[in-house]
Write a structure and sequence with these properties.
Layout lengths: L2 H23 L2 H17 L13 H18 L11 H13 L5 E2 L4 E2 L5 H13 L4 H22 L4 H7 L6 H8 L17 H7 L1 H20 L7 H6 L5 H21 L3 H4 L4 H19 L8 E3 L6 H24 L2 H4 L4 H15 L1 E3 L4 H28 L6 H19 L9 H6 L17 H9 L15 H6 L13
Antiparallel strand pairs: 1-2, 3-4
Length: 497
Amino acid sequence: MHTTLLRLLSIAYLLIPNVLFSYGWFRQPYAILLVVGYCFLLGREFIPHDSPKSYFKKREVLFLALFALVWTFFSGAGGFSDQKSDFFAHNAKFYDLYKNPWPTYFPEIGRFACYYFGYYLFPAFVAKLSGQLSPMVIYLWTALGFFLGLSWVYLLINRRKWALFALFWIRGLGFILYLFFRNTEWLSIPIYRPVINGLIQHSSYVPNQLIGTMILTGMLLDAVFVRKRIATMAFPITLNFIWAIFPSITLTLLYAGLCGYHYIGKRNYKELWSWTSIPNFLLPALLILPTLGYFLSANGSTIKGWIWSFDPPADALLYYVLGLGLDLLLYYYILQSLWERQRLLPVGFIKALFVLLVLLSTYRMGYHNDWFYRTQIPIFLILIIVLLRAFDTMLTHKSWPQSRLTLGVYALAVFMMILQMSSYVHQLKDNVLIKTLAPSLTTFKPMPYDRYPNVYQLMKDVYKDRGDAEQYLGNKGSFYEQHLAKTPINTKTCQSE
């Protein structure tokens, strides 16, 4: 396997839910135009180009496939190991999309759903065809996504297997401090505090958002900084919006900044003002418009506002410093000690990532602050890749830093990784294998898919009046409902009625 094939497989994987979404959510003329546009852009991927290729050895492909299968098993996808609380909603979405017509509609309140359903659409579509929702299909679909994402990251971390394992366990100090203080009399830290989450959290809570984001982050770094083909990334990034809208906003901002620097900062105007810009930039922008129109139909009732508007300023500052400020200082110190060793990204770009992370962290959206928890994913993934590349160079050349402070900070980062691992040890026994071989050792039981007829009823029952259920609703009389929706939504019938 080589990178050209990996890119083609990655785009096809991200594209499948977009095609299904176009078919199920938009009126036929729009759906046909979208699918034709997607097929045209996918066809362009078969055009030969002169950029260098990187090849995977057969044993590397086998290793990555096995790693993805094992990681998916322990993530909870498919219900083969312990599932985190978010799987109540994940499983309900699979069942809702399988049993009820598309576009998703909640007849009990007369509203259509407005959500990024990308991850769920292919397994639900297979279930509609077969008449049965299959956990194995969900598991394999998820594993394929992790395989593609891990393959891109594997290339960027110098093909180091130990670094691929370490990738998931790196996280911030802020969450540890939150766990320490949350049950004390000294400080009551709110649940929406801004902290850095590691990839292990994202894979076990929101695989629906991590998978596409990991694939595209790796593709973006490879296309821009390795193969120098920046114009080829607009189309793939637009495909991720139906998978995960908040990380896609971050990726769009990063890509816009890189394009601005390349085309304007470096005065490459002629590249931009050419006919190739139509398929490279204009057509992907046009194809994403209906999906953006769909998202803009959301009712907007979720909790949102500047982070300091929810607490007294002094308290908000304290939460910020403990939750995120220390992590920013810690990782900036580590990375600045390794600038010259990573040999991939310009130092200015890495510094810009920290600035963007700070800006994103000043706003809250959602009860748990989903805005910051998800927009941080591409940024922190890039920072981890840079850190692991640089650390590998340091190990290879045995060029350890002389400063005791620096060594102490490195040791602190490793200690945080060990703490992170310790919190997931239970996964080794809370899974279907141990349940089958030694049932007395575990209380593992997978979450059901069909507990509720649709996801709105689940969210309303489980989370009561927190506002989580309302986040899934679209506005009545919205532009999408009146002009884009596949059928007149108010005349539809669903099984949940």
